[in-house]
Task: structure prediction
Amino acid sequence: MNIAAETLAAYERWAPIYPPVPHNPLMRAEQQAMLEHWPKVAGLRTLDLACGTGRYSQLLADANAAEVVAMDFCLPMLMQVPVGKRVCASMMHLPFAADTFDVVISGLALGHAADVYPWMAEIARVLRRGGTLLYSDFHPEASRAGLTRSFKDQDDQTCLVPHRYFDLETQLEAATTAGLRIDALHEIRVERDMREAFPKSEEFYRQWAGQPIVLVVRARK
Result:
């Protein structure tokens, strides 16, 4: 099984218990940082890219976006999205015309891309001039340090989610190559930005204090 198939299988396994809200300390810290850099979306056409069960789709709708398109490659996840138009497709080949969206939001998904350069190029293609991309992902330094992404399934079994990492420099170069200009970069660090208690958190925070764990980037076309 290749990495794309493994990733899809992991999310299909996760879907029955995956809520449409940030459901762990990392996701809550990530969403807080995303909202700090949230673009104006009222009256605009928006895409929630790799939407999962639609937590950002709901926030876009709540912020009065004129249109919300929720797109994901995992149909069991996508079918739970409560708002917007749902599209099942790969984020490496967006099934939209050029200049379709004013805003693209993507939460914790870049690590599932086969390559960051075509990922950025596809987003830039569907963004209108002056449009905004806001995305987050597991920080490449966290991946390099050995931290992994996992979840407990319905049987309480721990499952790993395959995840690539792209160096920060590579991400910035890919954005520039695609014609996007970075105007905000936010590194979420353990204990400084993520400090919510959870089982065995004292040990985790002691071991990983100061470690960048999530990256949030905003770019404009």
Notes: The two ends are 37 Å apart (CA to CA). Residues 3-14 form the longest helix (12 residues). The chain has one domain: 3-220. The chain has eight helices and nine strands.
